[in-house]
Amino acid sequence: MTVSPVRLNHAVLFVADLERSVDFYSRAFGMVVMAREPRAEAAFLRLPRSGNHHDLGLFGVGQQPPRPRGSIGLYHLAWQLDTIDELAQARTTLLELGAYTGESSHGATKSVYGADPDGNEFEIMWMLPRASWGDFEDSAPVERLDLDADVARWAGVQTAAELVPVDVA
Hints:
Layout: E1 11-15, H1 18-29, E2 32-37, E3 42-46, E4 56-60, E5 76-80, H2 84-97, E6 100-105, E7 109-115, E8 121-127, H3 147-154
Helix pairs in contact: 2-3
């Protein structure tokens, strides 16, 4: 029998400087610290629209050499937005923070990428409405993102509520 979760509840990262990382995630994502555990040098953050207890845990471990990109371990986290308009704003925010690292279209999803002060990579993405996946139902290409054209086509379309059906037979 397999385990059948409905979604990823939260992520936890080891960071060099806890306060620097709390500041970054607060400025980049509007996260708020909802709890701290000083004995573990930890902070737990919640996204502004989240009904979750916490979405991100950060544990300060002090300065260490960065893990080489492409080595075994987590590649990136992906944060989903509700509208393509929010993705355009996310790109602007990442550029302003000096955290922007790239962008791409994966067919059914449109993405911009960034990195936190420790080099932890993340994706901020918007998903097309499920009914519009078409040929992308079973593929995930990496193509050039034309965000201006996508905003013109999909402005105001909300898709975050189309996540996972909870009642699976």
